[in-house]
Write a structure and sequence with these properties.
Length: 97
């Protein structure tokens, strides 16, 4: 029979039971993204959203998200995109009033 490989990931290692952690032979720590990586993530996640952010604004947002994971930044962009769409719809309604 072939071997079974188990791969796991967590943002909350402190919450795992020690017995579970011991069962994994190798542990790889992936740190939080750098400023440059956060700017890239923001640009990537917002590329299809009509937000009109400048490079300086992307940099400012990236500087405010120092302790954020890639997942946190993705959620931020998704929610920002939803707010932009809601505002655009609201503005269209106001035009017709």
């Amino acid at each position: 029979m072939g071997q079974v490989v188990v791969l796991a990931a967590t943002n909350r290692l402190d919450d795992l039971d020690e017995a579970v952690i011991r069962r994994f032979e190798a542990k790889v720590y992936v740190g939080l993204p750098s400023l440059t990586a956060r700017v890239h993530m923001l640009r990537t996640h917002m590329q299809h959203v009509p937000c009109g952010l400048t490079e300086e604004e992307y940099l400012s947002v990236a500087q405010l998200t120092t302790d954020w994971s890639g997942s946190d930044i993705e959620v931020l962009c998704r929610e920002a995109g939803e707010i932009i769409v809601i505002c655009m719809c609201f503005l269209r309604i106001l035009v017709f009033l």
